[in-house]
Predict the 3D structure of the following.
Amino acid sequence: MAPAVTAGSGDPRTARTRGRLREALLEACEEQPLDRVSVSEIVRRAGVGRATFYLHYDDLRALAVDACAEIVRQAVDALHAWDGAPPGPDAPPAELTGLLGAVRDRAEVYRSLLGAGGGGPLGALLHEELRARSLAELGRRRPAGTGADVIASAVAGLFAGVLADWVHERIDATPAQLAGKIWRMLVAVHATAASHGQGTPTAGPSTPLR
């Protein structure tokens, strides 16, 4: 089975081919929804044969997940872009605002890959990766059995859902405004968890995301 997400092949030709296929998919999604894109169109745009496509990916969804991997990595990093004491609820990381600006600049692409409410290949991968990162961070800072699993799921679901609804124009906000709203909600998730006995944040009641 071909990998759903590129794991860094040591073969430069493989990396180039997958890169061309990913970019072809993103270009196609600027013009039409993912469910209207065909393998034939992707291989034509990428300048490769159909057999080459199936050598690297099982189907278009696997390619879509791979194409989403970089923006997902950026999103996860943006939500954890601080060391030591975290920013307060009114000071979201600058990286988060920057990420949302990049998403807005390619809104047509992400609207195709991120279903309303947080579905689609981008939503699924974002939820999975953000939950895993949050669990790892929380595990280093909280005792076992303090609700890290619930907090991580809440963080992942909240961010993916809000981002999706913003991309689908259900939320009216600039990137800076949305970053502030998201950050305050995530801070509140952690504060609420702490107040219900699911662990005390190490840096005070406003500690988010870790």
